[in-house]
Design goal:
By secondary structure, this protein is mainly alpha-helical. Helices cover about 45% and strands about 5% of the residues. It has one domain. A two-stranded parallel sheet has the order 1-2. Helix 2 packs across helix 6 and helix 2 crosses helix 7. The longest helix has 20 residues. The N terminus and C terminus are likely disordered.
């Protein structure tokens, strides 16, 4: 009896799962639900979505960032990559986005000087962990995108780091967010490089659950996700998908957007 109870324990407590559903509802209200359903991809950490090579670390960082911008639907946003220790990181910047904030119908960006481009900090050491590197870029873009909303995220401003990570998942980067949500810091000192890691705000289970919400809303088969998810996250992901498909909150999200409920479990 006791073992059966443990086995059936939800992946997250009610408060955490409710907040993630609310965060997706917030994202769908403010960041173009049509773009989400018609254009947003499940971006994979593979050569399919990140092709190409550059001869320098700086060139490789710019190549990856340009690809992240494209998948985020923010190619028209004026940005500049700068070293994390560059004074420009803390300099005030004013950027105005005309028209749609994301998607293929957005206006092409006009050339902008450095005072009118969003600053994207990075270190070349982060290239050693490509998934964390991609996740970090997506999170920074989500931070800027999130500021265009006219209401704070669920729970208020104190939940901003978590909400913008959910927004990065919403933009298609959930695999990288989940796969880099936890970093083992034990073992030999030379195995861990803090400059190559990212600081996650969502827990590993929360990030995996957010990815599952994305996949259920997009009706993405489990196999398309599991092929790129770290092996130790796969049981949690499958459990999350099953729970989400049985949760009235997902049907409410779909109903609010006139979507047919997804009741069949993908395998």
């Amino acid at each position: 009896m006791m073992f059966g109870f443990i086995k059936n324990k939800p992946l997250l407590d009610d408060a955490a799962s409710q907040w993630l559903f609310d965060a997706f509802a917030w994202a769908l209200r403010h960041f173009d639900a049509d773009v989400f359903y018609q254009e947003t991809l499940l971006v994979t950490p593979t050569n399919r979505h990140f092709p190409g090579r550059e001869s320098s670390a700086e060139g490789m960082a710019l190549l990856i960032f340009d690809q992240v911008k494209q998948y985020a639907g923010m190619k028209h946003w004026p940005c500049q990559l700068v070293a994390a220790n560059d004074p420009a990181v803390n300099a005030p910047v004013q950027v105005r986005i005309e028209g749609p904030v994301r998607g293929s119908k957005a206006l092409v960006a006009q050339p902008a000087d450095s005072d009118h481009r969003l600053v994207i900090p990075y270190t070349t050491q982060q290239l050693a962990k490509p998934e964390a590197f991609i996740a970090q870029f997506a999170h920074v873009l989500a931070h800027y995108l999130g500021q265009t909303a006219d209401e704070p995220p669920p729970g208020g401003e104190s939940f901003w780091p978590q909400a913008t990570e959910v927004l990065a998942v919403f933009m298609g980067f959930g695999l990288m967010i989940a796969n880099s949500a936890y970093t083992f810091r034990g073992g030999c000192g030379s195995c861990y490089n803090p400059l190559a890691e990212r600081s996650a705000s969502l827990s590993q289970d929360e990030a995996t659950y957010a990815l599952a919400i994305f996949s259920v809303l997009k009706d993405i088969p489990n196999k398309d996700v599991l092929a790129h998810l770290k092996s130790y996250l796969r049981p949690a992901y499958k459990k999350a998908v099953k729970e989400i498909r049985q949760n009235a909150k997902i049907a409410a999200l779909q109903h609010s957007l006139a979507l047919p409920p997804q009741i069949s479990a993908n395998s």
